[in-house]
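Entry:
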Amino acid sequence: MNGWRVTLPNPGLGREEKKMKNVRGRFARSLWVGLLLIGTLLLGACAGEEAKTARTTITVVGVGESSGAPDTASIQLGVSLVDEDLSRAVQEAHATSGRITQAMLTAGLTEEDVRTTNYSIWREDVYDPQAGMPAGDSRYHVDATVEVVVHDVGRLGEIIGIGLDAGANNVFGINFAIENTAPLEAEARAMAMADVEARASQIAGEMGVELGKPVAIAEGTGGLASPFATYGLKGEAIGIGGAGPAPISPGEMTVTIQITATYEVNE
């Protein structure tokens, strides 16, 4: 037996380890049960608060409109030329465009009211109308256009006539505007709010409940509904070249405001 060591198990030590494991297991299970109970209570409390704060609401949309006469207009005045000689077409277009601009300044407009909006040159191949084949010749198209802003709408017809007398043969794109739309917007907004309140009150009355205070309001605008007019080529063809002011009817422009509101309901 020399050199050998025999170790026998200690029965008491095994029982203690098993006891500690059982204690730890029971503690962990109790802890999980406690946490689950706390979570359930918290969720129930939150659901109860949501149920308390949930309120019946009414959401309506109201519209208001206000109209006024435009006080500003813009128009495109230009020259469109066709020539077999490109240099000659360009020079004539430059000269005519310059006369139009100078005529506008002489009529009392400022340099800020006159700006170039188009300048283009393109070549057209001439075709034999009988054979439908290229004839070997070309011609050039030159277009030069300026936009003119008129701050007195009553002078718009006069300005068109001045442009035609200066050589413009392309008149188009009349647009009207109101420089300061704030008064019209304020009036349309008041009408939209009155419409919202009337609609909400009617719905509450039909439901048999009392209308409460508004809890959300949003505004949208439809912008300006603008009159628009165009003229074709050649002022003489529409009877206004050299024949006095063109007959222009600016009409009215309308500002539209939309209000969306949500009201509480007192049941």
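The helical segments are 11-53, 86-106, 156-165, 182-207.
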